[in-house]
Amino acid sequence: MSSDPSAPVAQTVPVFDNLRPHKVVAEPATHEGREALRVTDAVVDGGEGNEDRLVVLEGSDFGDGTIEVEVSGEPGLGAFGQARGFVGVAFRVAADVSSFEAFYLRPTNGRASDQVRRNHSVQYISFPDYPWHRSRQETPEKYESYCDLIPGAWTRVRIEVRGEAARLYVHGNEQPNLLVDDLKLGARTGLLGLWIGPGTLAHFANLRVTRG
Q1: What is the pLDDT of residue 15?
Q2: Ordered domains of the chain (ranges, CATH)
């Protein structure tokens, strides 16, 4: 029996190949016993702005499909006071990094003693027009949610994208931790990116992409 050419195709992506760092430093490392890619902030002035810190995976054309990866995020040395270890995945990234969609984690919020901070553990953004603060102001609670997280610990993330909808699953959960049915950039194709926020020390491993 011949294989179905329309069936989804899984591909394990070598994290160290075909990388284009954008406002970050990326280098091979070992973290918690795993071979990984370490990504740190390269923006000299730091601060909370500029949500376009990422490592672009050249040639990773992605429209619909599933992205699976293990991530670790924590505030780096000398990080500003509001650093949360922001770490995540960007998808449908424009070639010039002028726009993209992303899901990310705030690991230090996962077990914070403040319930409001816990409610802001995972986040969806659309760069450049829908940063986290605009979404929180205009549509409170719609694009962020709670998730149990530990700074610096390996965390399994899965993102499913179909048309204008996306789902974020953390820790292998069967139910999504965050649902978005109105991706701001619409249904399009773009590159993938390993995303961090300001002041973050991040690690990425075991990236697997299934297209279609």
Answers
A1: 58
A2: 9-211 (2.60.120.560)
